[in-house]
Structure formats: structure tokens, C-alpha cells
What we know:
Blueprint: H1 2-18, H2 30-42, H3 46-56, H4 83-105, H5 110-131, H6 136-148, H7 155-165, H8 168-180, H9 197-249
Helix pairs in contact: 1-2, 1-3, 2-3, 2-9, 4-5, 5-6, 5-7, 6-8, 8-9
Amino acid sequence: MHACITHNILQLLRAGAFGFTDTEIRMMSPHKWRTLRYVADTLGVLPYCEKQLRAVSPLPSTGEATDVTPPYYDVNNAQLFNHWTNKRYERIRDEEMERLSSLILEDDGSNAEATLRLLDILVMNADYIITRDIDVKGIIALGVHMKRYRESIDYEQLDYWLGHIGIIQLASFQGNMLVSALGFKEEDVPFLKKRSKSSDKQARRSFIRCIKLALQKHTFSNTMRLQLALNETVSYRFFSAISMVTDIEE
């Protein structure tokens, strides 16, 4: 069950978030499609999947308007796990924001702004990876930004920032997830360094594991609800039987 749902989530994300057309959707039962929709919503990526879901899912329309606008990935609170690396990041950001204010006045700040936002997303994801786990919507937001602003991003400047802050490997790991799990080409991810079979496998497994964890939580939740309902039913019937016996004895 999980393999088919995981595969389809990846394919829907490739098509809905990045516009890839070489996707292959597998047939599933209505129950599995409902599960997929729930998991995509839990992971915060349902809007990316929604249009594709309407085309391939056999589930009847509810008649309710569903928002298919991709969510804005908020990086205002981006920070790093280590005090010193975070200080270096904040210094870069402060200096760049000051420089941006003058560039925007000259109508020449779009490239710098796109590059800085890419840094913010990489930092946000890096902190999440170290302190919690992989944020699926954060990796999708990374790919969406790179696709949308690929002509505007200054990757030489980005490489300098990543090296100065000290998160080159963490940024490369994020890039590898885009390549190994979501179908990006290696040349489209310039900050991907020292790629190997083992690093590809680790990146793909890590990304897919987060989807599987959401699936397992959903399955466990449903199982627990069924078990509780069964226990309540058995307890009620047992109590009713005891009451009947007591009434008869009286």
C-alpha cells in the first residue's frame, strides 16, 4: 500500500510543483487516493498535487472550492542551529539587505533578491534537517524557487555565502534530494557537490522516509480509532449482558 501511494505522491509533486511531464501515475483504489490526499495535506504540499489529483483520482468531486494556489514558503524566521554559523548568516543577510535597498531603487535588485531568498530557503531547510527532520514542503519550495528564478540566481555568490556560513554539505544534500527523488538534472543544481551512488541513495531514502512516516502515522491513527471503537462496542455489549443477567436474578 505504502509503496504505491509514495510513488504517486512523488509523481504528483514532480508534475504539479515543477511542471515535469514524464510522470507515471499508478492506478489505486479510492481508499488509497483518500490516504494520499490526507498525507499530502499533512506534509503541506497538497496545493501542488491538487490539479493533478483532479485529473487522475477516481474520487468524486465534493463540490467545494479547493485552493490550488501553491503556498508561500515563509523564510522570515530562518536561522541556523549553531550560534556562530547563525551570526555569519545574519551578517550576510544584513549586508545584503542594505545593498538590496539601493539596488531596488535603481530597479536592478531582482537577481540579488532571488539569490538571497534561495540562501534563506537553504538555511531554513538546513536548520530543520539538523534540529528535527526533513521538511518536505521546504524541499519542494527550494525546487520551485530554483525553477522560477533559474535565470536570475547568482550561483557563484551563493557558493561563496554557503562556504562562509559553513553549510555547503547540507545545501548539497538538499540539492541531491531534488535530483535523486524528484527528477531534477544535476546541471540544474549547481550547489550539488561530490555526488555518488551512496549519497544519491541516502538523499532519496531520507526524502521518501518522511512521506512514509506521514503514511504510517495516518495508518496508525486509523487503526487506533478502529480499535477504540471495537473496545467500546465490546465493553458496551458486555455491560449490557451483565445488566440483563442482574435484572433476571432480581
